[in-house]
Each structure stands twice: as C-alpha cells, then as structure tokens.
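Extended Data, record NADH-quinone oxidoreductase subunit E
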Amino acid sequence: MAQKTTLLDLSPREATAAREIALRYGNRPDALLEILHDLQHQLGFIPEAALPALAKSLNLSRAEVHGVVTFYHDYRREPAGRHVIKVCRAEACQSMGANELVGMIERYLKVKLGQTTADGAITVEAAYCLGNCALSPAVMVDEKLVGRVDARKFEKIVAECRS
C-alpha cells in the first residue's frame, strides 16, 4: 500500500515543480485546473504537501486548492502504477457487461477498483463515461480509449502493460 505524502516528504523537486508550473500560468488562480493537470502529469499525482505551495503562488487559501483537488475525480492524490486503466461504469457500459468485466478484472489482477497491483504496474480506476458508448464496455489505458473489452482483450491489455 502506498504511503501518504506529508509536508515533510515534499522534495525540493516537487515544491519547485509546483511553483514553476504555477509561474508558467502567470500565477493566475483561474488556471488552477490546468496547473493541477500539469503537476499531475509531471509528478504522477498531486502530493498533499504541494497544496500550500500552490496556494501561496496563486494567492488562494490551501482549502480552496484542496477543494478543487478533491472535487475532481481525475486528480490523483496517491501515486499510481506505471499504467492506469479506467473502466467505464456508466449505464451504457453496464448494459453491455461492464459489471461482469469489473468482477473479472478484480479477480484477474487481485485488486479492487482504486488499487494498484502488487508489482506496481497497473492501477485500476472507475470512470463514469468515457464517451465510447457505441463500443461498450470501454476502458481507457493511460490516454488510449479501447472499446468492446472482454476478458480476452483485457488480458492482452495487461500483457502489453507489463511488457
């Protein structure tokens, strides 16, 4: 299980990254979503300890930054595996077998949604519409959308992630 990051754990690299990204956006508070997205892209997640640095750079309260990070499900607060697989749980995908697919995924990878495999290779998350309803059930592997996923196709995806 991943450990929580604390203010004392924030490396100079992470603090510098948070400040530099905010500066690229002119320290504009209205760019907070983009700043958080870039920070997560660079670090792999949004460290809790980065929030005070961002708040100070953007002249926002820590609570305002924290509220945004916790409101939007795409912002990760814990490190993820090398690959992130999002499984659509919306109604169209459910009607085409997404619930059964999730059960198979959890058994196959030996993790629940929101967890990372023991080897650190794959984090599996729920998503609530990937916009690929015509090709249900759908998953997103990192940034790549995959449709009509069944057990065989999922096993192939995992093999590619682990290679």
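Summary. The chain has a mean pLDDT of 91.
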